[in-house]
Design a protein that fits this description.
By secondary structure, the protein is of the alpha+beta class. The protein has one domain (about 5-55): Alpha-Beta Plaits, CATH 3.30.70.20. The chain contains 2 helices and 4 strands. The chain has helices spanning about 15-20, 45, and strands at about 5, 25, 30-35, 55. It has a two-stranded antiparallel sheet with strand order 1-4. Strands 2-3 form a two-stranded antiparallel sheet. The longest helix is centred in the first third of the chain and has 5 residues, at about 15-20. The protein is globular. Bound molecules: iron/sulfur cluster (2 copies). One iron/sulfur cluster (SF4) binds near residues 3 and 33.
Length: about 55
């Protein structure tokens, strides 16, 4: 399991800049986390301004 970005994402890009393993990229209408790369550090969730990133 990995952290997940929900529909509330406003595509600000903040999370992608905070991920230490570059698991986050811009997807179709929102940002997405690659579950094969995410190491579940939680840094992204703590920095999302709209709380769109949820823990596994
Ligand atoms: Fe990246 Fe950590 Fe967020 Fe996973 S939990 S996407 S490793 S910042
Ligand atoms: Fe979307 Fe939150 Fe990431 Fe911004 S920080 S791109 S709103 S998931």
């Amino acid at each position: 399991m990995a952290y997940k970005i929900e529909e509330g994402c406003i595509s600000c890009g903040t999370c992608a800049g905070t991920c230490p393993v570059e698991a986050i990229s811009e997807g179709d209408g929102k940002y997405e986390i690659n579950p094969d790369v995410c190491v579940e550090c939680g840094a992204c969730a703590g920095n999302c301004p709209v709380g769109a990133i949820v823990a596994p």
